[in-house]
Amino acid sequence: MRCPLCGCDNLDGADACETCNGSLAGESPVNLRRTPLEDRIARNPLSVLKPRRPVTVAPSDTVGEVIALLARHNIGCALVVQDEKLLGIFTERDALMKIGDSLDTTGQRPVRDFMTPAPETLLLTDPIAFALNRMAVGGYRHIPLEQDGKPAGIISVRDVLAYLARNFPEFLRE
Prior knowledge:
The chain is built from six helices and seven strands. By secondary structure, it is an alpha/beta fold. The chain has two domains: 1-33, no CATH class; 47-166, CBS-domain (Roll). The strands form two sheets. The chain has a four-stranded mixed sheet with strand order 1-2-3-4. A three-stranded mixed sheet has the order 5-6-7.
């Protein structure tokens, strides 16, 4: 049975897709008609969003250095990497919620104390729909992308919105 969300072939009788965990119950996928928007985000891989190379920091870098780096690059997150392995992500939300106004007392502590460890990742070949699902369910604004087990890029909700605006300008006319 083909998943109506991601197009993955699943065993007949399965209740959920093996790939995206979408429901296979209800209306037969053969009879489903997707809009061009739904079809495009289900088919197109994340690589079409032209993900940026991630800014990376070491777990021992100080949180003050990392916040300055985010400001200097005008970005919302940095990946915490050691030996080409993704350990965590440090976002502007981490800075606000975990540090707040105490940067003067915490600025010299390592970023590993404030990062979000083991963030969920996607592959460059995963469909855009996967990122939208992860962002909506997890409340994330950034998703690290991996290739061959190494950090390969990062996408944000802004990247997805820019893609939608470029490819579906009719939604902007109202």
